[in-house]
Amino acid sequence: MKYYFTQILFLLVSLNFASSIKNQSNTQLDSLERLLATQNDTNKIYNLGELCYQYSFIDTEKAIKFGKQGVLLAEKLKDSVLMASAYNDLSIAYHFKGDYDVSLVLNKKAYSIRRNMGDSVGVAKSLSKMANAYYELGDMANSLISNLRAISIFEQNNLEAYTGQLFGSVGNIYERNGNFEKALKFQQKATEIAQRNNDLRSYITSRGNTANIFQKLKKYEQAEQIFLDLIPKIEEFGNFEYLASIYQGLGVNSRMRKQTQKGIEYYQKALEIYEKIGSRTGMSLIYVNLGYCYLDLKKFDKANEFLQKGLLLSKSSQSYYQLKHAYQGLARLENMRGNYDASDNYFDLYVENMDSIYNEESNKLISEMQVKYETAEKEKQLAEQEVIITKEQLRVRQRNYTLVGLALVIIFIIILGVYIYKQQKFKQQKLIEENQLKDEIAKITLQNELHEERIRISRDLHDNVGSQLTFIISSVDNMGYLFKTADEKLREKLHGIADFSRTTITQLRDTIWALNKDEISFEDLKSRLYNYIESAKLAKENITFNFEVDVNQKISFNAIEGVNIYRIVQEAINNSLKYSAATTINVLLKESKDKLILKIEDDGIGFNINEVKLGNGLDNMKNRATSIKARFNIDSTPEKGTTILLEMPIK
């Protein structure tokens, strides 16, 4: 749950580039509403936009109402400037409400209009808001790229204040991906620029995000002091959303320091503000955090109440990150209650949600590569058109020379034309070659950046899930301490849960390792299989595991082959542990001629293949084998164990 404070501050810094963010009083807003009846269309649109923006902080439904009126009126007038402004204002209201998809669509419309108008600063502002929407939807790659593009435009226009705000946004992305050192550097840049420009809002935001990073680095006292120092500045500033974010950060800090009741008090203060302004994002974050607090206090009914509320709001905003933590909390709750089936169901939803995050990010990375390629092609076409225009201008000048009249001038023009033509042809060819080289360099650079981003995202998934599982282990260990006087069976059960959580951490790391490699060496795969089998040994001490490798060639696999071989071993061992009642499990990897042979066998109860209906696990193994062009066979006899054989050609 640590990332939530950054999420709120990121939203705030990305949404506003106006000169002041301070909310107007109700009297001022009422005055603006009364003006609507007396204004012409243009002034009315700007007034509706201002009302939409200001109400976004205190009443999102009212903000959306005014924003939609502004959009309809701007579209009716067919004024590009007004339409871009109206889309921009309405996107802010939807973002505060938590409808990130709608906000992204509106910002893309504003971006398209501003780009066609040649409004570079407006384009950068739209890019910054698109980056925020991508961030909330979990698309870190597009969020980072959009922010960096906006920063480049602002720097070209010497708009340092805007650049500083986006440095903070980039820092938030690196913080979520676990690169805290880089995140701190960007937040420091944002703070320095805010101080130079006397920008109190940006200073508050960057310092709050810095405090959040300190929390993740377990520097709780430093983080708390920053939060407390910011409260009087925010009260002076007069923005309730900022104040709620600070209370939320203090709540997280207190809970990390085992001061749960104090954390609840801070969360309640934040919740009152979020409920007042109608921020679904803020409310869902607080509900889930309160659920975790009451889990710590073993007040299960209260925990369930808040977790369910958080889950409902997270579904409405379609935020995978919020859903992930809600499902995880509910799985833990039902496990602590002893409702293991319900706990398993919630955990399955949690895992399914994790897969959704990964698949969505993978698809978006591919789409981003395609967009980058198409953009480069368009830029190349524009450059070629500029060359053609230049040549046409030269030909016009040459025709003008014929007015001089004499043959000598005509001959001179012909010679000059031939010379220019050759020069231009040479330059054009050189330009084409340079563009091709730049395209190749850009493509390689983009691939490297996206690959690094995938690794960072995987690390973030690893760190977030690992930290939550570690917390579960800690909680189980604490329960074991609290119930140290209880019977031995209870203590053994608690130890079993802790061991299972540790095993889950190892499995998750192995999965992330496999999915983020373009090529996997045999030694790397062997090492991972060995680690997995060692983990299984610790979990099942009554079973003997034997892992034998007889491979001399230097073999490598692509990512799909490596993942499928690893998963087949996992599935086979898991099936044996669950159903075979085996005392010995043997795993053999060897080479025979041009084939790699994988053999997994146990001495369990076995089964009659012709009489037993094969389950999803065995079907999955067959499908995985087929996908890598390997032969798969299973042999089992009642009371004589089971053998699984995989034969794969060596490339």
What keyword list fits this structure?
651 residues; alpha+beta; Serine Threonine Protein Phosphatase 5, Tetratricopeptide repeat; Heat Shock Protein 90; 3 domains; 5-stranded mixed β-sheet; two-stranded antiparallel sheet; 23 helices
Structural account:
- The chain is α+β, with helices and mostly antiparallel strands.
- The protein is 77% helix and 7% strand.
- It has 3 domains: 4-278, Serine Threonine Protein Phosphatase 5, Tetratricopeptide repeat, CATH 1.25.40; 349-516; 520-649, Histidine kinase-like ATPase, C-terminal domain (Heat Shock Protein 90, 2-Layer Sandwich), CATH 3.30.565.
- It is built from 23 helices and 7 strands.
- The strands form 2 sheets. A 5-stranded mixed β-sheet has the order 2-4-5-7-6. Strands 1-3 form a two-stranded antiparallel ribbon.
- The radius of gyration is 31 Å and the shape is flat.
- The two termini are 45 Å apart.
